[in-house]
Amino acid sequence: EEFLVEISGTTVTITCPLDEESTSWELSGTKAAVTGGKYTIENHDSSPVNVTCASGAQKYAMYLNARVCTNCEELDALAVTGIITADLLITLGVLILVYYFSKDRKGRASSSAGSRQRGQKMQRPPPVPNPDYEPIRKGQREVYAGLQARGF
């Protein structure tokens, strides 16, 4: 058999497995003035305590390490499920909005100060040749001496 522990705010109620009215309680070696099947600790300070209940020759002991708080709210499983579902739906909605607004901007030309409008197409000068990729000229054979002409 097991103890039944109920926590509400800073109140801890312990029910002994013995159902007798002559049950005596002991907390960390100190006898409690309460007798009966239930023992209530008001304003528990979350400190660990050894709890013992006894009736005649039968004795049950338990180590109680209950954390309590004054401003806690108890939530049932339905409320927690609702909160998580609402959070996921809001997050999904924001993601969809960001996707559609960013999709529209890709097709538009930017109107920043660095861009200029195109009028008539102006001829551009040819790009400056890269000296690393110059074609072989007749007077520069020694630079490319390692290359052999292939005979077809």
Automatic annotation (TrEMBL):
Q: Classify the main location.
A: membrane
Membrane disposition: Single-pass type I membrane protein
InterPro entries, sorted: CD3_esu/gsu/dsu, Ig-like_fold, Phos_immunorcpt_sig_ITAM
Q: Is Endoplasmic reticulum among this UniProt entry's keywords?
A: no
GO CC terms, sorted: alpha-beta T cell receptor complex; external side of plasma membrane
Residue ranges crossing the lipid bilayer per the database entry:
77-101
Q: Entry's PROSITE patterns?
A: ITAM_1
Coiled-coil parts of chain: none
Q: Where is this region: Disordered?
A: 105-139
| Location(s) in or outside the cell | Cell membrane
* Gene3D superfamilies to which the protein is assigned, alphabetical: Immunoglobulins
> Keywords on this record?
Cell membrane, Immunity, Immunoglobulin domain, Membrane, Receptor, Signal, Transmembrane, Transmembrane helix
- Which biological processes are named by the entry's GO terms? cell surface receptor signaling pathway; positive thymic T cell selection
Q: Name one GO molecular function term.
A: transmembrane signaling receptor activity
Descriptive protein name: T-cell surface glycoprotein CD3 epsilon chain
Task: Please give the organism.
Answer: Indicator maculatus
Q: Which gene encodes it?
A: Cd3e
